[in-house]
Specification:
Pfam families: Mis12. The chain is mainly α and about 240 residues long. The chain has helices spanning about 25, 30-60, 65-100, 120-180, 185-205, 215-240.
Length: about 240
């Protein structure tokens, strides 16, 4: 029987969309992509081994034409690779569309799906849409509430940081008087107030002195001495 070869280019159909039931092929670990990839790698490995053996044989028989042989084989290999890719693309599409195609009406049911009704009615779809809308509303409200909580948390966090800074400053100011043996602030302020009142009375008392009988050149010195006397008395009183 004589084998005949055709020179007609194979017709390639337009790619079709991925079918729903083709997922079963992946579940059964029978991926067309893996099988075809292995076949393509095997065909290329076989082709390169043949080319390598042919080049060695021709170079051995005609060593003086090694360069011409290598150039011719490189050109042939380039054309053969292009043709191999074209033919394999056609073969890959044929296998995907015919050999590996699973009928659309294939009824395959797993054990865990026996009690599940996959016949979904229009009302079921509407109920699922309503549930999804309700969930979206709840999620939106949760996001808004989370934003409010985050803002409030950051606000309180900044307030706590300011309070901590003020507490450190207060502790620092409270520690200084104890280290320097400074009197209580309230007592000190009362003492200052009392001294101011005493000083005011001393000024009034000195100012009310009648110095008309003294010569003008002695009046200023007299008032200064009286005022100094009052200041000394206040100073002695404050040290008691």
């Amino acid at each position: 029987m004589q084998t005949t070869y055709t020179t007609d280019e194979p017709r390639v159909k337009e790619p079709r969309p991925y079918m729903e039931h083709e997922l079963l092929v992946e579940i059964f670990q029978m991926l067309p992509e893996n099988v075809l990839a292995d076949m393509y790698d095997l065909a290329n490995a076989l082709f390169y081994n043949v080319m390598h053996g042919t080049a060695d044989r021709l170079a051995t028989e005609c060593p003086e034409k090694r360069r011409e042989i290598q150039a011719t084989l490189d050109k042939y290999q380039y054309e053969a690779e292009k043709k191999l890719d074209e033919v394999f693309n056609t073969f890959q599409q044929y296998v995907s569309q015919s050999v590996w195609k699973i009928p659309n009406d294939l009824d395959v049911q797993f054990d865990q799906h026996k009690d599940i009704d996959f016949n979904i009615a229009a009302q079921d779809l509407q109920d699922m849409d309503d549930q999804l809308d309700e969930l979206r509303t709840k999620i939106k409200a949760q996001k808004q509430f989370r934003a409010v909580l985050t803002h409030t948390h950051e606000k309180h966090k900044r307030g706590i940081e300011r309070a901590d800074a003020m507490l450190k400053n207060f502790a620092f100011l409270s520690e200084i008087p104890r280290q320097q043996n400074v009197s209580e602030v309230n007592d000190t302020l009362l003492f200052v107030k009392e001294q101011i009142e005493n000083l005011k009375d001393a000024v009034v008392e000195v100012a009310s002195e009648d110095v008309s009988s003294l010569p003008e050149s002695e009046r200023t010195m007299y008032l200064r001495s009286k005022f100094q006397t009052q200041i000394n008395r206040l100073f002695q009183h404050s040290n008691q």
